[in-house]
UniProtKB/TrEMBL annotation:
Record-given protein name: Leucine--tRNA ligase
InterPro entries: aa-tRNA-synth_I_CS, aa-tRNA-synth_Ia, Leu-tRNA-ligase, Leu_tRNA-synth_edit, M/V/L/I-tRNA-synth_anticd-bd, Rossmann-like_a/b/a_fold, tRNAsynth_Ia_anticodon-bd, Val/Leu/Ile-tRNA-synth_edit
Positions bound to ATP: 595
Domain of life according to the entry: Bacteria
Keyword terms, alphabetized: Aminoacyl-tRNA synthetase, ATP-binding, Cytoplasm, Ligase, Nucleotide-binding, Protein biosynthesis
Molecular function per GO: aminoacyl-tRNA deacylase activity; ATP binding; leucine-tRNA ligase activity
HAMAP family for this protein: Leu_tRNA_synth_B
Organism: Leucobacter triazinivorans
Methionyl/Valyl/Leucyl/Isoleucyl-tRNA synthetase anticodon-binding domain segment(s): 668-792
Chemical reaction(s) catalysed: tRNA(Leu) + L-leucine + ATP = L-leucyl-tRNA(Leu) + AMP + diphosphate
Residues covered by the Leucyl-tRNA synthetase editing domain: 223-415
EC number(s) from the headed UniProt entry: 6.1.1.4
Family: Belongs to the class-I aminoacyl-tRNA synthetase family.
Protein's cellular compartments: Cytoplasm
Amino acid sequence: AGGYDFAAIQERWLPVWERLRPFEAGDGDGTRPRKYVLDMFPYPSGDLHMGHAEAFCFGDVLARYWRGRGYDVLHPIGWDSFGLPAENAAIKRGVDPREWTYANIAQQKASFRLYAPSFDWSRVLHTSDPEYYRWNQWLFLKMYEKGLAYRKASWVNWDPVDQTVLANEQVLPDGTSERSGAMVVKKKLTQWYFRITDYADRLLDDLDRLEGQWPAKVLNMQRNWIGRSRGAEVEFEIEGREEKVPVFTTRPDTLHGATFMVVAPDSDLAAELAAGASADVRMQFQAYLEQTQKQTEIERQNADREKTGVFLDHFAVNPVNGERIPVWASDYVLADYGHGAIMAVPAHDQRDLDFARRFELPVRVVVDVRDADGERLPDPAESGVATAGDGVLINSGELDGLDKAAAIAKAIEVLEARGTGRAATTYRLRDWLISRQRYWGTPIPILHGADGSMIPVAQSALPVELPASEGLDLKPKGSSPLGAATEWATVVDPESGETWTRDPDTMDTFVDSSWYYLRFLSATDDTQAFDPELARRWGPVDQYAGGVEHAILHLLYSRFVTKVLHDLGYLDFEEPFTALLNQGMVLQDGAKMSKSKGNLVEFASELQEHGADALRVTLAFAGPPEDDIDWADVSVQGSAKFLARAWRVADDVEHAGAPVGSGFADGDRELRAHTHHLLADAPGLVEAYKFNVVVARLMDQVNVTRKAIDSGCGAADPAVRESAEAIAVILSLFAPYAAEDMWAKLGHEPTVALAEWPAADPALLVEEEITLVVQVDGKVRDRLALPASVTAEEAEAAARASEAVQRSVGEREIVNVVVRVPKIVSIVTR
Ligand code: ANZ
């Protein structure tokens, strides 16, 4: 026999599972209900770490759960294998990024093998395979056809260390690059964009559908990122200039208080106005522009900074009152928000007020804002505090007497009637910059002519394969290394003899991960990106699991691409991920683990030392999955002990000789009731992600069963077998090896992973009742039906609460209560 030996058990069952391949999904044809359970796929930056162990543990609990509930479950795995880290590591070590990447993938696959998440390995994909990325190119061309992929010159975020552009989403709040940590600067470049802003409203509004299914925090981050602002667009004439200048404002009600205009120094408008000014102004402006370009967007928006600016020697005309107002350039106005120009209302906007006070510009109050006592707030020009609240309009012609909301509506009406403005909505969301000047990514399938014309590569000529890196200088230098691959880059039209040059840029890897969940449905299909019929069957992903670090970028881009594919007729759904679980981080002594901090807990060595089951149980038991886990606070040994205790229950049943299939009905009722409560509660707990509670309940069930074996009904009682089987089935979500071994000891064929969950018997869930007799001064006054488990306190309270008892006691004083549960409560009065 021998005791519980995790290593021997792993060795016993891994080959069996690899032979049986129980985790390959069916064809989703509808004979069974379906669940698509997806974990965010890993980036192959080295071996798996504890963060992976945690993420893939939780996703696996859910995949195994739904399988046990009779669902056809799709739970695939792949690698997000393009991207900068591979390339930077390759440069550092002087190896081919391809070699480095695929060696890491091989290592991660080997680690996954023993950890044994229930992946469907028949669908594995790597985004750096031409078989995968040709469909990125397909997607790009579909977007290009629809006008959703376009090229433009604009100010972009430039990472001076990695020498590449960054999406807005990749710039951290402190203005540094998420990748290199370098301070991001602005650079004017021609780049490729996806027109995600066309989808801003849908991306925002459809978040409502995910309410309750996605973490509230993620929904909020998405909402703020899209940042919808409603207001108006107002057109100002500028003296000496033909076209009018539109500004975006959320407060068209304050138009009469606009005393100057401010344009972003780095906007085209500012450059044009400065060009028409005196030499002196031109020089001042040029210096100011240079200073502005050194600032990050975050610095520019910092309200505490002293305001700076340059008068542009131009005047605008306020469309509602014909007033001449000066036009200034200042860095607090951003070029790529709204129209890059504002009407400044210093009385009611703090930034404008700070600017007005600094440059002695007029301040005019147009909203009478009062405090709680009805006192008018001090004049902003004197107090230095702008009054942004609600109030009644004054000094505003036809708007006088209206409150803020009514005045906004009226102002828009007036502007529309005069043709000088209209209701407008602005978003914080910018178009998605998808081109990168780096090697290790998907080539953009566009050809450039000598005359500047562009043609898409024909779908039939895909994939445009990445050339070998040999001989290419991969070091960041601001232009793509692919441009130097002359042979690769030059394409001669065989008919016309014309020469075209391939676009040298590669795609942002977030393009790869925006639709990978669809490729798993058709991972080996070389005729299409995915089969729309399979997408109808399996999509959208029912359960997505992964880190909160992807709360904005990846999820937003996936949602966008899903909507585009929906509009192109490939999908019948518009949201890719129905439910989302964000797991916390694995910490060590309260800090994020890292090699440099020297607090790294190695997944490989933990796995070696404790085995897969004990690690998984530890992760699941540590707390709610959304919370961080401090590895210093958990006990893997405790988990291992629990597993040994659970395993011994099955071992005892095996040796007691009670046969498989013996009628449970004759078993010990108390233990049976305990088992069935577990069976009844476990599904709801798993579905609510309360994995730690399920593990605690399993621990309790093991203890109760142990007691029944040692000092109760004994191991041969059918109730003990019933309990052991329930433990094995539920434990298989967390400890697949131990559960499989228990299942075999209980006389069943592999695999427990496909065993049906026993149903809870409602008859065993109702508690047994007893009848409690209540006497007052020796006479029976009431009979109460109470649960058999009633305590003395509860029995006394129920007796005192009885109406019949209260009537009998009346005004007399209770001097003594004798309680003998579960039979009698005797009350004595005086
Ligand atoms: C006049 C006004 C009066 C404004 C007032 C506010 C208060 P959100 O809510 O973020 O959308 N604005 C417009 N474009 C800008 C740009 N490119 N850079 C910096 N600021 C810009 O903010 C909209 C408000 O921010 C707009 O409404 C405009 O100032 C300013 F009592 O117009 B407001």
